[in-house]
Amino acid sequence: MSHRRDYRSPAADSRSLRIGYVSTEYLDPSDVRAWSGLAYFIAQALEKHGAEVIPIPLRDGWRKAAVWARFLFFRFVRGQRYLRDRDPGLLRSYARQIEEQCRHVRPDLLFCPGTAPLAFVDGRIPSVFWSDGTFGAMRDFYPSYTNLAACSVRAGEAADAAALGSCALALYSSDWAADHA
Known about the structure:
disordered N terminus, single chain, alpha/beta, 14% strand, globular
């Protein structure tokens, strides 16, 4: 049995689609230099096709120090990698920031170039993400995803599963990534 959600906005026929563009500091859609320009060019393409792109920037704030402390502990004490961008506390903070900003800007849908920032968002607003791979596919494939602390593996798998399980649409850059999802 299929459960298809109808996310069509009642006002969708009378105005542009309002896309809340979720971005972390390194995925800033207003900065062509961020992440090889990917976030910038995606935002430009959405606007070119008539969407109203509303920035939803996320900040690490005071959590940055705690996340870096965990990273340093695992790196120098345990000799393992701790993935800062999959830290559960940071991702829950992102979810609260997204939900708070959505109350003010009221987008029709959320878009993010990545899964992790959307992992724990409440799901009232449909979400779409773009990714070049799943956490599981990147694990032990890229050097920065090797020798991971067990807590990073659990957090990465949980974040990917939550984002994939709650999204309206998952976009992958290749058949390999889509097949793995």
